[in-house]
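Fold it.
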Amino acid sequence: MKAYQSFLKLAALLIAISFTLISPAQGQHKWKSQILYGPNTVVYKEFQKFAERVKVGTKGALIIETFPVGTIVPQAEALDAIQAGLLDAASGTMAYQGGKEPAAAFWDLAGGYDNSLHLLMWYRHGGGDAIMNKIAARWDSVFIAPIILGLESIPSKKPIRSIADFKGVKMRSPDGIPAELFAKLGAAVSVMPGTEVYTALDTGKIEATDWSTLSVNDEAGYNRIAPYAIYPGIHSLNSTDFVVSKRKWDALTPDQQAVVRAAADEWCMATWMSQEIEDRKAVSKRDPSTLITWGEKEKAQLRQVARGVWENWSKKSPLAKEIYTSQVNFLVAIGKLEPAK
C-alpha cells in the first residue's frame, strides 16, 4: 500500500513537472510574417516595432518573426503562401491578386484618394474592413488592418501638370487599374518589375514611373535621372494590408486578438507619420521648381477619368462591384466625387 501511495506521489510529481515544462510552449504562438519592403526602410523598421508590441502585449504568448520582402516567397505569392502554410501572415498588397479576384485591384483605388486619413476613414467607417475580409477569405485569411504609407509621387523627366501632360509619355505602371488609367490618359504604358525601373529611366526606355512616395523615390536615386515629381501625389495612396492565416488567427484568445488589432492600428499610424516625415525631409532637399503640385480642378478631372476605369473593372466580379460601389459612395459622401447622374 505504501509503495502504491509512493508511486502515486511520484506520478503526480512527474505530471506537475511535465505541465511546468510544456505549458508555456502550448500557450505560445509563433508566426512567420513577410513584408513588401526591404530591411533598411522605415516601413520595415515599423513592422519590427509592431512585432515587439505584440510580444509585450501578449506577455510573450505570440511571437511574430519578421522577414523582409522576398525572403520566403515573392511578395506577389504571399497570400498563396499563407493559404499553403508557408507563411502565417503578410503585409503586402492584395493588388497582386487582381487576376484571381478583380476586387483586389481596388486595394488603393488608383486616382481616388488624395488624403491618407480619407482612405483610413473608408476602411474604418465606410465598410472597407468588412469588404477586405471578404477578399482575404478567398485565401483562408483574415484582414487585420491597412498600413498607410502615404501618397505616391510620379518621378518624371518633364513636368506633368495636368491629365493632358500624360499624353505620349512613356511610363512604367503596375498592371491592372493603374495601367488602364494611365493608358486612358494617353501615356505609352510599360508594365515591368520594380527591379528594372531605374535602368529603364536611365536609358530613356521610360520617361516617368508609378512607384512610391517622394522620399523612397529620391532615396532610390530616381530624382537624379527624372528630376520632376508630382507632390503631393495624385494617383495612388500607398498602403499595405496586414493579413493573417484564419487558422492561426482563430487559435488566439479574444484578448490576444485585441492586442494584435491595437498594435496594428498603432503600426498604421506610426508608419504613416514616419513616412510623412521622410517625405517632408526630401522636399526640403529639393529645388522647389522640380515639385509639381496639382490643384483641386486637375485632381477632380483625373478622378473623373479614373471613375470610368473603376466602373469597367467593377464588372469583372460581384465582389469587385461591391468594393467599387462602397468606395464611390464614400468619395461622394466626403465631396470628392459628384453623385451619379
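The chain has two domains: 29-149+238-284, 155-235+288-333.
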